[in-house]
Amino acid sequence: MGKQICAILILCSTVISITAVHGIAEDPISVEKWFDNLTNSKQKVTKLEFYFQDMRGGKNPTSIQVA
Description:
The protein is mainly alpha-helical. The chain has a domain at 2-36. It is built from two helices and no strands. Keywords: Signal.
């Protein structure tokens, strides 16, 4: 009897959690609306900088001219 109740509880909690997760909208407009409704949050900006150094000649070239 105890194993059946445990199995039923696990099944019910799985079904409830799956429906809750699939009900979340993930499109950018919905995310912006959700973020605007947060009261104590500020939007954070991350700036990424990429550096690329190439050597087209010399002993160990790191790139080649294609066209």
